[in-house]
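Practice record 12: protein with ribose-5-phosphate.
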Amino acid sequence: MADLDGILENKDKDYGIGVPVQRDGGFFLKGLDNCDWGLKDRMSRIFNVKTGRTVMLAFDHGYIMGPTSGLERLDLNIVPLIEYADSLMCTRGSLRSVVPSTSNKAICLRYSAGTSILTELNDECIIDPNDAIRLNASAMAVMVSIGGKYEAKTIENLVRTADAGYKYGIPTMGVTAVGKELARDSRYFATASRICAENGANIVKTYYCEGFEKVVNSCPVPIVIAGGKKLEEFDALDLCYKAINDGASGVDMGRNVFQSEAPIAMIQAVRAVVHEGYTPKMGFELFEELRNK
Ligand code: R5P
């Protein structure tokens, strides 16, 4: 009964008394050490574990804008880009109708919906968490409008989403908007981002601005930037570069990819800036090379 001797014998055993319990600290993304395994697993699908960053392809614009330029035919415009993205931000409608179920990409599901650009934006509700589970969503994205008419409602949407997110292990992404009267500057983007995080968001999407490092540093969870309106390709790559340099954990980019003259070349150039440290000049050279292939 040597094994029994081993169980009963106390001497020579190292119980590690006095050594702090080794926790799963040092998770590669900030602010998430104390979250559940499932939530972290989903974050690890959205963000590249080696670089800590993501290239999220956004094509949820139709939920408020209809068939906007570059998204008239999701099957033709978006499906060829999917393989180059780390994650897809889209509605459940486009996911079920267009995105191949074999894509195996992390899905950041547009989880709030409401008024269109034809009326006042941000009067939104949220969908059923069971649908996010059915769709194997890696995150649920909810609009939060700070200083706008629907501020309280959008924050309640975020809070209810985070409740479901913590219950089921699905991260919540707060999508910041600032009221029409407010400047789109670091003061308001930092306020909106921090409000999202404090109310339970595990990722925040906001916009790049002067003083962006303050927005990032005052937000306890990872920030990704939206691309915004279409820019010249070099300028869009410059935007990515500055955001990453100032601490963004990636981009959630739509129009600057799918409205580009060469979307497949552009998303690869964006990837090079986000994941490989390319400068805007190097990224633009890559874009030119790929578009001329
Ligand atoms: C805005 O709320 C939408 O959710 C878009 O996903 C987001 O703005 C990113 O797209 P874009 O880069 O075109 O601004």
